[in-house]
Amino acid sequence: xxxxxxxxxxxxxxxxLDEKGIPLVMxxxxxxxxSKELDDNLPTKHDAKDALVIARLVKDGRFSYPRILKGMxxxxxxxxxxxxxxxxxxxAIRNQMIRWLDRYFPEFSQVFPxxxxxxxxxxxxxxxxxxxxxxxxxxxLALYRQSEGLQSPQKPKAKKLIELAQHSIGVTEGQxxxxxxxxxxxxxxxxxxxxxxxxxxxxxxxxxTSVEYExxxxxxxxxxxxxxxxxxxxxxxxxxxxxxxxxxxxxxxxREHSSGQHKxxxxxxxxxxxxxxxxxxxxxxxxxxHNEAFRQLHDYYTTRPDNPLRKKQSIVVLCGKLLKVLxxxxxxxxxx
Length: 336
Description:
Elements: E1 2-3, H1 11-20, E2 25-26, H2 29-35, H3 47-59, H4 71-104, H5 108-111, H6 117-125, H7 129-132, H8 137-145, H9 155-165, H10 175-207, H11 211-216, H12 224-234, H13 243-249, E3 254-255, E4 267-268, H14 274-290, H15 292-303, H16 311-332
Parallel strand pairs: 1-2
Antiparallel strand pairs: 3-4
Helix pairs in contact: 4-10, 4-12, 10-12, 12-14, 13-16, 14-15, 14-16, 15-16
């Protein structure tokens, strides 16, 4: 059976066919889109034409075999995907809180650049500058101690906040509804923090049962959360015979546009798993700082006399090299 995968709608059919032992292949939606004009030279699109295009791509061997996730791999993929959605939602809530502060308490960021426990306590009990007017330092600190998880609020920050509140330029209208808004945002932000932390702990406990975890954790710069995301995207390194398959999966293969005497610049294809590519970029920054081997490679690539790379180019090369190293460690069972 040949299909063009669209969203998540193909998964039920894929598991059904797998249970029945019927082979399933997938055509790339980009290939279907770009080859639909080969026969009639028309950009028309309908179900009958799509089915014919997919059938011809399958006949020509232009398809791939999907990997049906099972067991721990399926659990990691579902859990990591849900965790990323929670993190994305938390970021949206954070942006809404920043927008709220820009309107009603713009001086807040001078004291609290991020939303830690004390910052959330301030937003919970004294969100407006007027809430701090006429209050003594100890009275304010006593309010903040009532917040969950905050036993000893920092006096210098509270003192500076009171001073800034006296000359605040924040909006003073619409505060009744704005108080409800910020209380709801703080409550949801804390809830997401707890949910993300609990889910991360469960995912780490799950990934620790994997044999590959024992080899990946010895690599300097790879933490438990990173290993969870990596294995949720890749599955098992044993599924790949060559590390170049992993590089292609991450969309890190080079593409070039050249014609005649014109030599185009090479760039990464970005055809692959976007989350895996983003994860590798995020991981490589601390790897360069804390992993001596990758730091020396980065220095070499950016300072070599022949064809030195820019820093971002070096990071792309090192992302591919990291996949090669991890593939060798997990398949050959050799220490880093």
